[in-house]
Amino acid sequence: MTAHIGKPLDRVDGPLKVTGQAQYAGEFAVPGLTYGVAVNSTLAKGRILALDVDAAKAVPGVVDVLSHLNRPRMAAYDESYTDMDSADGAPFRPLFNDRVLYSGQPLALVVAETFEAARYAATLVGVRYAQEPHQTDIHRQAPHDAPAELPKPRGDADEAFARAAVKVEAAYSSPVEHHNPMEPHASTVVYQPDGGLTIYDKTQSAVNTLEFVSHIFGLADGDARVLSPFVGGAFGSGLRPQYQVVLAVMAALHLKRSVRVTLTRQQMFTFGHRPQTLQRLKLGADQKGHLEAVIHEVLGETSRFEDFTEHVAEWSGALYHCDNVRLAYQLAALDVYTPLDMRAPGAVLGIYALECALDELAVATGVDPVQLRIDNFSPVNQNEGKPYSSKQLLACYQQGAERFGWSQRNPQPRSMREGHQLIGWGMASGAWEAMLMPASAKATLAIDGSLVVASATADIGTGTYTVMTQIAGETLGLPMDKVTFKLGDTSLPKAPLEGGSFTVSSVGTAVQQACQALIKTLLETAQKDDDSPLAGATPDDVECVDGCLRLKADPARSLTFTDIVRQSGSPSLEAQADAKPEAERDKYATGSHAAVFVEVKVDEALGTVQVSRVVSAIAAGRVVNPKTAENQILGGVVWGIGMALQEETQLDHHLGRFMNHSLAEYHIPVQADIQDLQVIFVEEHDRIVNPLGSKGVGEIGIVGVAAAIANAVYHATGKRVRDLPITLDKLL
Amino acid sequence: MTPFAYARARQVDEALALRAGHPEARFIAGGTNLLDLMKENVARPGMLIDITGLPLHDVETTADGGLRIGALVSNADLAYHPEVERRYPLLAQAILAGASPQLRNMASTGGNLLQRTRCYYFYDAGVPCNKREPGSGCPARDGLNRIHAILGASDQCIAVHPSDMCVALAALEATVEVAGPAGRRVIDFADFHRLPGDQPQRDNTLEDDELIVAITLPARGFARHHAYLKVRDRASYAFALVSVAAALEREADGRIAEARLALGGVAHKPWRDPRAEDLLRGQPCNAESFGRAADALLQGAQGFAHNDFKIELARRAIVRALEQAASQEGTP
Questions:
Q1: Which domain holds residue A463?
Q2: Which residues form a coiled coil (chain B) (predicted)?
Q3: pTM over 0.80
């Protein structure tokens, strides 16, 4: 039996990437290409009174300067600007009118025959504004209720908190963060001789981009095709089509020319971001730490034009057992761009606060932090009143603690040191949803016995190409090199957004089912011959091995795929599957879980924090590829270290502008910050979550890391820092 | 980025002549800072004069036992030069605390002195900045100033000089040899960089038409007792919040015979005060004497809200660096 699933196979697209053959959206060579460079606002709020484009247009090579004054026709209504990941409200419309809604807003696009001419001319565009007062400070804006359906309060959390023997009440905050994938957002729009558009876009869904630009510019079916074969990281920044694709399509339609727009690193700070949050946690418990009350109040930041919501507080009613829970969620509308899903959106923030508060409860009750979580474990998601289809979180605690050596921990803060370094150990739980979305895939077997499987999903560096190849190869009994997976193309069967950790489960299920359907087609084709060795067999009676279809009971009765395709009279045989969640799934809650253990070393005098050791135990169902899965978890842990200690986009409230907009000043971990990271996969056998039994690992790796670090810093220093990031000045 | 002309010079005189005819020109060597500034539209030279071909790549011992470093020696080559490693390990440490290997391979010794501040406002051509556009204002004073100066700032500018190498050069009392139309002159390191005052656009005392040709280190290298301590927000590739170059010579009885102390990340130039060093002379190596020197060096320090912590941080860093220097080889 060919067995690919569960093997740590190398990425099938690795050689293309390391040899530069993988082409990204801003790299496709197109004859006669023009280059667009956006001019961004320096003002946070107001109106454009005048645009002076004369100097820009006088630069040799400049073709045109587009703005709200001369752009082609665009849809007028908000509905046309919604996309597959929209927030409530009126989506941003680039170059639509004279309104300036945030600092960094694109106001014009300079298009030139060369990138250099466009970039220079863009610096010459003069903008005269009518300035209006802006507000970018979450502390100074009156909040409104978030348009989110929170779980109804259960029990009486306030009353239970009031009478609880042990109380923890604390406020936590997290700053704005930007995604900063390595590849900046880019779109290359090829204007075809017949007026059609081929759009290479950096996106987490080619389908989303196509529908979005089609609605805005009134394109008919077939007028455009979107391709996105490779994406250099996205982390949620490609879930919504960003302004570069609107500007590039706009310019191509207006000029009837091919246009490329690539954002600069600085411009990567001019659209969505992880929202700033202020959170208040109240935990009431008995003397032994059993939770009796959980109150979690969240204030998130959003824009003036959309209400961005995510699941921040929900986790506090789901992760542990508690009968008295009240959750609240408000938003402060600021003069900034709308926040955007970023790796483990909501969870990473809410669970940070919850897990820090639990650590404070452990200290208040004297119960070991791991034991406290074990004592409050819930096999049921009480928000939904449903049992989890699987939740091996207890095994995560046990295996993680053992690998880490947690039993040696002295609970006393400041109890371990090495010279000037105080050493602390902390831990936290993590959780993420295991979602399943409708997805389609098509499998095509050629006469030479090679298989092509296709679905319009994306590979944002996560390993989609590899994992889908494994699933298809496994199902059809083919070696990896006989299977090709295609994605990132709107001509392929539809797939959901590549996000939320649901690609392996959703698209993987569709791939598996398409391959299973293909087996059926093969069998039916074979059986058209009355003398077929497979005559009379049902799909359950046959198996695929080494490019052959054969009877399980009598392997000698076998046909090669090649023979069957030849017999069909067609050059190939194909089958498509449209996979949907099964009804059985509705009876259960589904999720992935984690236990994160961290050691930090804090310089007692200087406040510098070093994360010297992390053990992350992950329960995420069946792991299709341990190599790419571990890579996902490691990336999540590294980002968690950045979230805990470094990342923060700093807003100047006088200017209403993000100011540290470069990778020199916006800090993320560098190699020297990363030391010993270990990942444990706690396998779960879960046939309910989806037929593959896989829950996805894109988000779970980051969740809980920041809390574990904050808790370790407390254990090292005795100081509780509740405002992220924990920079050294907060520890002096 | 503004279009620019490009010329290549082979000799110092040729470079100076090109510059004399083109006041809008700038010299370029490694370009590790200038190109960034051009891409950000902060620097808009009409011409770049490539000086990488000038014969300024040598490191040679001087008659009085010092070391003369050509302006075009790369930061990496300088840090790993056997004479620097052996006799001036403080300088090697400081260089290696800065930037990244790729940047150090490109960056030149002379160019390192001319790095411009990392102030967010200076780097963003969309906002006011007195250093970039004199008279436009300084949003950092009442804005984001966590990384800004606590010493020597002016009403017009609170930016800091970003170099690590220069902090060590200040402590070692290097001199800067420059060539100009009127010939060559030597500038003491302490006089090379300047405080912002009412001309924050000027980082140093180099004239527009002058070119750095060499840095000279005196014979005394403090190889035995030295430390470069850099405190920053991550373990590499971050500018100093505070850095300390400490160098000591000790008597046979352990008392301090000579001390040098310079700070980075706190002012518009590497910060030194001979009075602080004088306080250490003849003193035992202990927390009290180190603390007194730290207090003296930080006299007059003033924060602007977000950077208030730097005053206490600097004090602690100075004491730590002096402890490390005193402890013998001064490994950080």
A1: 437-580
A2: none
A3: yes
